[in-house]
Amino acid sequence: MIKTALLQEEGILEAARIIQAGGLVGMPTETVYGLGANGLDPAAVARIFEAKGRPQDNPLILHIPQADWLERYCRNIPKAAYRLAEEFWPGPLTVVLPRRSNVPNRTTGGLDTVGMRCPNHPLALALIQAADLPVAAPSGNTSGKPSPTTARHMLEDMDGKIDAILDGGPCSVGVESTIVDLTCHIPRLLRPGGVTLEQLQRVLGEVVVDPAVTRLMKSGEKPKAPGMKYRHYAPKAPVTVIAGTPRKTARYIFEHCSPEDGIICFDEFRDLFSAQVVEPLGSANNLEEQARRLFDALRAFDHTEVTAIWAQCPDCKGIGLAITNRLNKAAGFHIVEV
Ligand code: TXA
Ligand code: MG
Q1: CB of 180 within 8 A of CB of 298?
Q2: Which of ligand 1's atoms lies nearest the C-alpha of 230?
Q3: Positive or negative CA dihedral for 92, 96, 101, 107?
Q4: C-alpha R_g of the chain
Q5: 3-state DSSP call for residue 182?
Q6: Which among 101, 142, 207, 283 has the fewest CB atoms less than 10 Å away?
Q7: Which atom of ligand 1 is the closest one to the Cα of 179?
Q8: Whose CA is nearest to atom 30 of ligand 1?
Q9: Model confidence over 267-291: pLDDT tens digits?
Q10: Do 186 and 208 form a contact (C-beta atoms < 8 A)?
Q11: What are the phi and psi torsion angles at 139 (to 5°)?
Q12: pLDDT tens-digit profile of 152-206?
């Protein structure tokens, strides 16, 4: 077992050397921490899958420092990709484009497309620049667990499995990037995230929302983002999501929960649950704070004895769509509408 080094900003060059040598580095981004490796090196990429326990058919996205690197790894790039980059990069948006043959099959899970993202975090950008390579990075959690939003979360899952983690503090967005597929006739939202659907529509016009975003895939159905078919974000205890206005959902949970349950609720309602383990998400009208807190809240229950978790859920406006999607997935789409 290798010992995982915790590096600070001064360790960027060391982290870059590890990536160049085929190793694995935990990389802070504005969304979540990523598990980074040289995206052009099939052996390094194979180590990512191994450390996460990730299914081989689930492709990785490549992180680049600026939009003019797109040409190196993608072909037939539509103008829309540059318009999006202009508007949202560096930032929480991944675009899916046709790949060039220098991107290994291992990285794309055999797909002829590749997801590209330019993260908005000074340490991530400095690391990619110093390594001078596209950094393949899935979220740095063990497959199926909530994504890490602090270096400590990442250490929980990856200690002894990877070479180093670069500590860039807590992530400012807290849910993963928005993924939009530009290889379809009409751009398609594969995963809601830090850039909202409304923001995408302003730049692209019509955007199709992939069905995997809002409901469970039926057996035999294939979502376009392979990762959307896997159980994800799940704490050990089963989660039930309650959807509706904040007052109604708080009342429903209050009436149905037992003292040994865990509760994810908006700050306004935390005093209702004095016997339970409570993870407040933030104020009911502060979606940004809810997004930042969500994965830490889901993870926290694994350090407790709770046997069931109830979650209040925001509506789907703005980044609320991403929060709802992650909560619904954590609950295996076990949702009660009130
Ligand atoms: O915010 C983020 O995107 C974070 C940070 C580290 O950048 N990364 C991240 O990666 O969330 P990951 O691997 O956990 O999620 C990427 C998702 C997966 O569901 C995968 O199936 C999908 O993107 N994906 C990757 N390449 C794809 C492609 N070519 N076509 C369709 N879906 C793709
Ligand atoms: Mg992930």
Answers
A1: no
A2: 19
A3: positive
A4: 19
A5: coil
A6: 101
A7: 23
A8: 225
A9: 999 999 999 999 999 999 999 999 9
A10: yes
A11: -60, 145
A12: 999 999 999 999 999 999 999 999 999 999 999 999 999 999 999 999 999 999 9
